[in-house]
Amino acid sequence: MANQYLRQVEEHGKLITKALNGGEPSSSILKLLGDLKGGVRANEELLRQTRIGVTINRLRQHKDPAVAKMSTELVSKWREDVGKLKKSKPSAAGTPKTHANGTSSPAPPPSGTASPAPSKRKHNVDPAKRSHKTDKIDYNVTGDLTRDNCIRLMYDGLAFMSDELPDEILGTARNVEAAAYKKAGSTSDAYKQKMRSLFQNLKSKSNPGLRKRVLSGAIAPERFVTMSHDEMKSDERRAEDERLEKENMNSAMVAQVEKSISKEFQCSKCKQRMVSYSQAQTRSADEPMTTFCECMNCGNRWKFS
Ligand SMILES: [Zn+2]
Asked: Which residues form the TFIIS N-terminal domain (predicted)?
């Protein structure tokens, strides 16, 4: 059931983006929003995975007030859905974690379980303490003392916080050193400086993604040794941005909606002061804004300008 929603929402998100980029009339977008409103019960995982909240939130600034209004309503509804789920089952983690076949990437592990389960570990030394010493590595492989010491350095950088097997790490360390040596042409000061810089970046606690990507081969040794400190940093920043975006998407969405719920307005039907509103410039800039209201208590809707 969850998968069905996921696919449906993903598909609609794509169609909406396409309609926007293609300059399609508001009516197409309204139709898609209407489908979402009627057919989808939101939960946090769904919102995160499909990133639909980001798409819909943008639409709240749409120039067509009808689109802006419908998007706002949709966000309110989803916010309620998520709120209800949280209240009714505190163990929201109990929702099935299966995914649509091949259409979505697997969910990231829940925060707080960063280190792999001991049973899955490929290597038994405490990852925080790993080095050429704990792993009893013979790094004297090139016949050149300086180069061998640099391989040792790369090994220590790559092994830190890793659970890969020593042979794999040593292989990568050798490849990185060989690439750096080839590029420098000798064991010059520039070469040594480069190796120290690579080591520091590999061991950086704030940039674990770099180490993993070098070890997995996602960053080839030849590429790695040409990366500037800034490029490695930007990798770190990108990973951090992605993480923050995922974590904050839902809360950001909620925050925006809450901002637009006002006690200033009173519902004429139920007399409650729980009115969600959004404003839009309907015609030209010198005409007054139109305010669209929805009572969060009884659902009554109205507008004024
Ligand atoms: Zn009302």
From this structure: 1-85
